[in-house]
Every structure is written in C-alpha cells, then in structure tokens.
Description:
The structure holds 2 protein chains of 2 kinds.
Chain A: H1 3-23, H2 27-52, H3 55-85
Chain B: H1 8-28, H2 33-60, E1 67-77, E2 80-88, H3 90-113, H4 120-139, H5 143-161, H6 168-199, H7 204-214, H8 220-236, H9 245-248, H10 254-263, H11 268-275, H12 277-281, H13 284-305, H14 311-331, H15 335-370, H16 390-404, H17 410-424, H18 430-458, H19 466-469, H20 477-492, H21 507-520, H22 530-554, H23 571-577, H24 582-633, H25 638-657
Antiparallel strand pairs in B: 1-2
Amino acid sequence: MLLGPALGVSAVLFALGVAGVLLRRNVIIVFICVELMLNAVNLTFVALAQELGPNGQVIVFFVMAVAAAEAAVGLAIILAIFRHKQTVDLQDINLLRG
Amino acid sequence: MPPSVGWIWLVVLLPFAGFVANGLLSFLKPSAKRAVSTIGVGVLVAAFGLAVAVVLGVARDPNDAPYLIHLWNWLPVGDLNIGVTFQVDQLSSVMLMVITGVGTLIHIFSIGYMREDDGYARYFAYLNLFIFFMLILVLGASFPLLFVGWEGVGLCSYLLIGFWYTEKANADAGKKAFIMNRIGDFGFLIAMFMIYRATGTLNFTEVFATAPQVFQVAGPAITAITLFLFLGCTGKSAQIPLYTWLPDAMAGPTPVSALIHAATMVTAGVYLVARTNMLFAMAPVSSAVVATVGAVTALWAASIALKQWDIKKVLAYSTVSQLGYMFLGVGVGAYASGVFHLVTHAFFKALLFLGSGSVIHAMHKAYHHTHRHDDAQDMRNMGGLRHWMPWTTGVMWVATLAIAGVPGFSGFFSKDEILAAAFARGQEHWLFYLLWVLGTVAAFLTAFYMARLMLYTFHGPNRTGEAEREHLHEAPWVMTGPLLVLAAGSAIGGLLNLPEVLPGAGWLEHWLAPVTSGSGLYLPEAALAHGTEWTLLLVATLLALGGLYAAWHFLKPEALTTAAEAPAETGFGLVLNRKYYIDEIYQGVIVRPLVWLSDRLLWRTVDKGVIDGAAVNGSAWALRGLGWVGSLLESGAVGWYVVVFVTGVLGLLYFVAR
Lengths: 98, 658
C-alpha cells in the first residue's frame, strides 16, 4: 500500500537533487541538493521497511546521524572557503584545474 | 726438492719489495737518488744471487720432474682450483737466469743513464715492478697465473713507454702498445677458456698430461686453441700483424727498450709457445702458421730496418726480425733452438740497445751544452763516434758480429740452428724450404743493416757540429761496465748449444729435454746429414760476411748530410723508410672505419639517437603527453566532475542491473 507512490516521490526528489547538484553554482544550494538526495533515499528505505521489516528504518537513523555530521563538516568547509575567497560560487573554486 | 728451490718465492718478492720502497720514495723523497739506486739495484742483485742458487739446485738434482711450489689457493671455484703456484723446471730456470741476470745489468746501467732525470725513483719503481711481473710470467704454474704476469708486464711496458708523459707522442706510443696487446690478449683468453672446457684444468702439468687423451692430433680443437694462443704471442712479441707498437715503444728510456722491448718481455710469446710445446706439436697446422709468420716477420722487419735513420728504430725493427727467427724455430718444432736464440738475443740485443743508449747519452749531453735542439737519436747527426767512445764502439761491434751471425759469436750458432731445423723439415713439405730461404735472406739483410748502423754511427766523418764535437765523451763506468759483461755474453753465449757437428754439442737442448720431450712423439724425425749441416753453416757464414762487406763497400758515410739538410727519400727507399706505410694502412683500414662506426653509428645513432633519444627521452615525452591528455579531464569545474561521476554511476548501475 502506497509503496508505488512513495517510491515515485523519492525518485522525483532524488532526480531533483541530482539536477540541482549538476546545474546550480552556489555551493550552499548544491549542499542542500545533496541533503535532498539523502532524504530521497531515506524515503525509499522507510517505504520499503513497510514490506520488508524494520531494518530499513534503522538504516534511516544511521543516515540521519551521518548526514548531521556531514552537514557540520560541509558547512564548516564552505565557511572556510568563503573566508578565503569571499565567494561561494563553484565557478571560482577551481584550484585543482589541470 | 733441493732446499734452494723452496726459496723461489723470495726471488719473486724481492723486486716487489723494491717496487714498494721505490714507489714510496718517489712520493715522499724523490731527491734521495742514492737510496733509490741502492734499493733498486740491490733487490735485483739479491734476486739474481738467489736465482743462481735455485738453478744450481735444479741442475744438481737428478730428478727431471718440475718442482711445484704451492703458496696459497687463489681461485677455488667449483672444480677449478687455481693456486699461486710456481713451477721451477729447466725452461723457467733459463728464463730466470736471463731475466735476473740481464735485468741486473740493465738496472746498473740505468743508474748512469737516468742520473739526471727528475723521475728517478718512479723509474726504478716501474723497473722493479716489471721484473716482479716478468718472474710471475715465467714461474707461474698455470695459464691464469702466467696471464697475470703477462698483463703485468704489459702494464709496466705502458708505464715506461710513456715515462716522459708530458710529450703527447710518448703517451700515444704507450697507448698504442697497450691496445695492440689487448688484441692479442683476447686470443690468449679465448684459448684459456677452450683449454679449460676441453681438459677441465688450467695447470700446465695437468693440461699437458691430459692433452693426448682429450685432443685429436691435428684436430680442430687443438688447432683453434694453439692459433688463439699464437694470436696472444703476436701481440706480446710484436709479430705480423700486431708488430707496429714495438718501434713506437722506443719513446721510452733506452734501458727500458733494452730490458722490456728487446731482452725479456717481448720474448714472452716465444716462452709461451715453448712452454706449451705439447699443444703446438699436436697441431701441425698451427705450428706451420707460427713458423711462417715468424719467417715472414723476420724478412719484413729486416727490410724496414734498412732505411731507418733513428738508431733505436733500426734496433727496434731488428728486434721484431729476431723475434721472427725465434718463432720460426719454435714453429718448426726446434723448441730448444728457439729458446737458445732467445737467450743469445737477450745478450746481444740488450747490448746493442744499451750501447745506443750510451751514444744517445753522449749526443744529448753534447747538444745540451750548446743548447741545440737537433735529434740526438738520428744517425745522420752522428758519425765517427769511435774517436770519442772507444769502449762503446768495441762492444757494439761485438754485438753486431753476434747478431749478424759471424762464426764464433753467439748469434751465429743460435740462428744457424733455427735455419737448419727449418731446412731439415723441408723433406716433409716444400713450405719449410721456402721458410729457410726467407730466413736466410733476412740473415743477409741483418748483417747489412747492422753494418750500416755501425758505419753511420761510429765511422766516417763526424756530423754532430763544430761546437758540439768537443763535448762528446765516453759514458761513465757504471754504464760501460754492464756493456762489457753483456759483450762477453754475446761473444761466448754460443757455447750453450753448439751445433751437432762440434764436440760438446747441444748442452741447452739436453737441459731442456725434460720440458720438450713430451712433444717429441708428435714431431717428425728430421735429422740432417753432416755434409748438409756443414753446407748450411758455410752458406750462413758467407751471407753474414757478405752482408757486412756489402754495407761496408756500398754505403758512403762521407756523402751523408745531417738530418736537418737530408734530401727526401725516393723510390723504394721511401717505402721502406715509411715502413711500407703499414701504420697509415692500419689507420685507414681499421682505425678510421672503427672510429667512424663508433662515432657516427654507435655513438650518434645508437647511443644518442636510439637509447638516449627514443628510449630514455622518448618514454618521458610519451608519459608527459599521456599526462596532458589526463589533465584535460581536470577542468577544475565541480559540475563537470559531478557529470562524470553521475554518468559513471549510471553506467555501473546499467551493468549491474542488466
């Protein structure tokens, strides 16, 4: 029940996240899009847990914990970059260009 | 074993100790010339005394087998065990006497000749080192130990040819000698490898004992081994085609020419053939090659000597020619005769060189007084020196009569024996008659060029110069003393081995019999009737006297001009004077193409082009290009990375899900 619509919503959310990462230039937006993808995956886990037992729900908690840690580190990096370069535009962050 | 033979190691060690002491002195206190002469000559006198005791011990002992004095194991590798072992037998005894005896005389002579040289200590250090290596060469009981001595004397030869190394010509002459010898040494090494492969050992006694079992007489293996050995001999003993280094080696001090390039080192090839007579007797083709090369070299070098003006060059070509006689002797199987000529040649050629050294010494001093820079070695600048140098003239005449083969003198007996041995083999094959003819003609030329040398140097008018003439004088006693001893040896050395038609004949041949007896089985019996032998003696005598007379009669020293005003040579005389252009031919045919090959092909094309260019730099360029292609992916745009990443993930998913 509701499995099909739930998976459909999560697929749309994931695709939106990927599109945002690919297309947007602002690091903050890209970062939020990454969170969007994580939560799309979470939704998939939760939906499938209805059918397959509670393992998926446990993993969702793990993902949320890791995502919180990742958000802390990621935001710190973005802050550091901003202090360094006065911008958060990905176009200008290209130190590794060959 | 007689007790004295056990002391043979000391005979070898003494010259080495002299080398170490004089070598240190040459660094620490080169001005201590008295100490240097005492050490340098002292060790030689002591070594000679000990050597006499050793040889007397060998002579008294009725046992004929060689004494092997094993000192220590040198190269124990698998089945091969090469020790530092000295072999004292009849042949090495003869060589021991020649090396220490003539060596001592030449060391004494050097005191006078080199007195004013700055490198006095260095000179005696090299000379002592040479004696050390020469003794290793003749005493070594195995091929590798002989080779150590063989290379060591080559090194000393190089050091002493280039003794006055500040002049490029001298250094070049040293290099030439070294490289020419290297070609021969290659043959020696190959022969050694082949001997080890066939017999499994390299010790002389064992090789000669097993040779009859493992080698087929006249078979390809033994022929190849002996030919490679002989290649080594042509390098060391200056035979065709590797003889051109010896005349250039005259760049060294004259006593060095006497010791190394006349009496001892260059006879090492003859010694090697005599030592391995067993192998050469089993290879008749190689023996014929040895004899032919010897006879042709004898005539070839003698003809070049006819037109040389440098007194030492005449003697150098004479040495090449006489070495050819020795090879003719050992090539026709007359090993004792070859060694006999080696001994007599050591006397008279050392004497000739030292005599010429005495002349050069006087000429040099005379020119030095008046600060003239003419050539002190050119015979056209000499003439009439007998008025100033009576002793030198006398002993030089003795040596000339000996080398020319005038009856009674040593060279007559030794040369005649070789020619008789060649003639006797003529019954077997016409080649040996031809070799006899070559040798006989060379004997005539020998008498001629030696008489020419004497005539231009000591007789006729003096051409040295008005002011210089009064400074000419006889050499000091320390130089003429050794000359007199050598003159005695040159005169009576023939007594060692008188021909069969005289009483008391063949002493040296009997002495060497234990060494050469093994090869007797493989040599044809070749005896001459007494009538034939007398005829040969008569022919040799007539040719020797004829050569001397011809030179005396046809050459006119009165018409000679000094070297500076000499007219250019013409015709065949020019060809002889330029040594048949052999040096130029070698330069053009071998050296130039080799240099071209090395320079253009091997260096510029292979080394710089292929290895440096394509292989080393090429791989670097290729990797740099590959890195540039890879760096194109690193655009620095994060979006692009994500596109690649997502594409990759989708691709992976496609493959996994399929």
